[in-house]
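Kindly review this record before class:
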Amino acid sequence: MNIKIIKKVIEKATQNRQEIVSFNGIAGFWKHPRHENCWVFNGKMPIANCWIFINPNNIQILNVMVYNSENRKCGIGSQMISEIRRAFPDSHIWVDSWNCSRPFWEKMKQRGMISSIANDYSWPCTNTTCKICHKDRPLDTRRCIFD
């Protein structure tokens, strides 16, 4: 995702007069305009963000994205999840994971940053160029050229 799109998201939140709030001293949360009990965490914007559903008994993390592939595997996602854990220290934090993101979430669980991974089955992502999730997909022009 390019910087122009990210700036539009921030501008939209500002135009809608979305109040940016903090939980336990961790700032960067704003209420999602279309989903109930959902907050967008922009703690690492414009590099990364995610959605958080706050329920009475648990917290679900969804749509985690480190936008530029050059910034992936640099600890930015781990820092973001660590901040969410600090914002909700006593909550059960859970995720569902794609096949390609499962190693990251297993590492976060091992470090105590999340409590559980809900799906314990194969769940290929919707990105048809992802070789981890779509190993058997035949090569064609839509296959990622960055192997």
Remarks:
- The chain has one domain: 3-117.
